[in-house]
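Quarterly update from the structural biology core.
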Amino acid sequence: MKKYLLNILLLLFLGATLFPSCEKDVTFEFDRPSKLCLNCILNPDSTISARLTLSRDIENSTTFEPVDDAKIVLYENDTELGTLTPRGEGNYYLNYHPKNQNEYKIVVLHPDFDNLTAQTVVPQKPIVGHRQDTLEYSEQGLYYLLDVYYEIHDTPGLTNYWLYGKHTVHGVTYSGGGFFTSSVKAPFIDNFNRQTDTEAQHGFTYSYYVRISDVGYDGSILRFSTYGKTGLFTSFLSADEHYDKYIKSSVKARMNSEGELPFKEPVQIYSNIKNGYGIFGACTITTIKL
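Predicted structure, tokenized:
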């Protein structure tokens, strides 16, 4: 019996020696030097604009400080395209429409900071067909409710699409996922932002956007149906790899901030800017008015 007790005491002693307390004080360092933050999305339907600001501490809730004294140079297929003109409040502009499938590089020069660089390729414009069937008329909303059947004619190569809508009700314009996302169901849809909704047609809906990936369906026709209504503008945005990751991480962060769970995994907003923060991406958009 004494030997047994001695063995127990020895084990307790070894446990206390080999496995000390796991409690540890952790200090988070929020006070970091500011860096340049560039945001620029290329779209062949628009001239080029960019915004340049300074980053701020996570505990700082003030507005971002604009930077107007930088030189921003844009390159197209390794050839210098031009220098963006500062317009004040951190806004820069170049009167040029980027081209589909061309490669672009941006360089930001400032005497007080490291040079910022990033690259992107403008994707092809989505080819989308559709047909619609009228379901009923809403006297209150003054529109027809529709069943809409879409076909995305996917081109070869990795492509990610973002579906969203824009409509005006009683003079107020709304954009984003909207009510029609509750009736979208297809195997090629990314469910990262799917939320349960017992009143929806399929028992779920998507927050803000519907992300459609052609992984496993490359070069195919992506068919699906959803609700619509007259006056609705449905947009299909084809994003390059950088803008796609930026949108997805931004939606995750937005959903995280709106959730009710007390413990949430932090979301890092995607950035492809070397020596700084922000996003330099590209997209093309096909919009259909119902």
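DSSP finds two helices and 19 strands in the chain.
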